[in-house]
Amino acid sequence: MDMDIDLIVFDMAGTTVMDDDAVHRQLQAALAQVGVTASRHDVNAVMGMPKPHAIQALLTQHQGRTPSGDAVASVHASFMDRMIRYYRDDSGVRECEGATDVLRWCRRHGVKTSLDTGFNRAIADAIIQRLGWSEAGLLDATVASDEVPRGRPHPDMIFRLMELTLVPDSARVAKVGDTPVDIAQGRAAGCGLVVAVTSGSHSAAELQPHGPTHLIETLSGLYAILERSTAGAA
Q: What's the half-sphere exposure (Cβ side, CA atoms, 13 Å) at 36?
């Protein structure tokens, strides 16, 4: 089947992975260890960014000065430990509604599937192993923010996934995520579709001003978008 979209780049936490707000909670807890109280609004403003960059921004905001590299590394190490234990052991970790079904649909229709994330590889692997998607053959490629020169909102992770999956044209790539930086990343990469999911960390009202091509409440909303793409390519 000839489709306008050859590759979909899915975000992880909040888009394909349900974690009961663990990223917010664990980042707040790691910051609290150094005396920083970050609100949900504060954390939401940096969601999707590489986590060391997010931590640096939050420390700067609350301490009024640029933190040292050691200070950022210490908070990030605490956050990593908390998140790996959470994704490995917590009973609340599960896929977002319909994620496996969407991945299987893509495979059946010849669309390559991939994941990118603001997490580093260690946390990404803990999630992927927990959900069993690689073992099930549902992913063509994955990339984490510490495996490219620049994380979101820069397009480096999308370009790396295009290389790994041999998709040369970003106009035939769809980016799917739940944060403003997911949208910015997709637009920076020149993706043909930039789809924002409103059931994750941000509402439709918060996401719309950033210019997604589509807003969907859950991943099942992708079917209609991709089927229209199929009809347009026929």
A: 27
Return d(Cα 169, Cα 7) in angstroms, integer. Answer: 10
Q: Which two tokens stand for residue 89?
A: 């052991």
Extended beta strands in the chain, E state: 7-10, 17-18, 94-95, 112-117, 141-144, 173-177, 193-197, 214-216
Q: Which two tokens stand for residue 154?
A: 């820069």
Rounded Cα–Cα distance for residues 157 and 216 (Å): 23
**What is the C-alpha to C-alpha distance for residues 115 and 121, in angstroms, rounded to an integer?**
12
Task: Work out the pLDDT band at 3, boundaries 50, 70, 90.
Answer: low
Do 34 and 140 contact (CB within 8 A), yes or no?
no
Provide Rg for the chain, Cα atoms.
17
| Integer Cα distance of 143 and 146 in angstroms | 8
Per-residue pLDDT of 104-147, as tens digits, reads 999 999 999 999 998 899 999 999 999 999 889 999 999 999 99
Distance CA 148, CA 159 (A): 10
- 50 HSE (CA, 13 A, CB side): 22
58 vs 65: CA distance, rounded Å: 10
| DSSP conformation class of 191 | -
44's CB contacts (< 8 A; 6+ apart) are 24, 201, 202
pLDDT for 16-51, tens place per residue?
998 778 888 999 999 999 999 999 889 988 887 888
User: Backbone phi, then psi, for 148, in 5-degree steps?
Assistant: -135, 160
DSSP character at residue 9: E
The CA-atom distances, in angstroms, between 14 and each of 141, 145, 201 are: 19, 16, 6
Could you tell me the pTM of the whole model? Answer: 0.85
